[in-house]
Amino acid sequence: MTPHASDSALYRTLLESTRAIPWKIDWATATFSYIGPQIEDLLGWAPTSWRTVQDWAERMHPDDRERVVNFCITQSQCGVDHEADYRALTARGDYVWIRDVVHVVRDLQGGVVALVGFMFDITERKQNEEKLLQLQQELEDLSFRDGLTGVANRRKFDAVLAREWQDARRNARPLSLLMFDVDFFKRYNDQYGHVEGDECLRRVARALERAAHRPQDCLARYGGEEFVLLLPGSDAPAARAVAQRCMQEISGAGIAHAGSPLGEQLTVSVGIGTIIPGAHDEPMPFLDEVDRRLYRAKHGGRNRIEDAALA
Asked: How many structural domains is the chain composed of?
């Protein structure tokens, strides 16, 4: 064996002993001139079945194909080394995450002669990344949830209000807000204890959730025994109808309140506001006005709705 042949054999042995899968594509003919035998262990396709770049493209997940193929062709035409992640089809019919690391070989004039590179199995890494993203999403969801009732918390409400306010202003559409306060809740705690008081708030939240059934509506615990319900796209009559439905749901829940001067069952007071935000309107004055209406509902006898027109 000549020294050159010996070197080639050594290089091939080194390449084929790694977990990475080496390959080479002739640019002019778009054919594989070489692909490592490890490809069969990973994907189940024999090296001899990798003839053209079409075989490579067809063994790619349909959702990845156009993006990856266009990216690799563009980068290669420009003579730029690059990497691409995609899902490769196995002979068994499932998919494996691959990272292709590509080096562009050019002649003395700068023309592309060949592409050489390595395929790496990154399935485990992708799975770990997906688990991490899922965990991050779960943590974010928890950070926006009220720990007691499970509905959105004040932080989430503030974020949704800011977003919906801008959308209502941009599209000149109404935005309604309902504020609820559990009537005589201090007396409830004194009568039944704080453990039952917590359960009471959970039952109120569930009743309000049943009444606010649109996906775009945002129910949140505003603090203590107060809840808010944001109704994007709802005008004043629709908001009042929702408020009445909320009161009916709470009444239907049959939460006993022996300490209430209003009767034997728990009730709520409601303040309502509706606005189409103008260029100079801001959320805080609107919130303050709805809060004042809630105050009037409480001091006007409780178990009632206050929705007088905005001044």
From this structure: 2
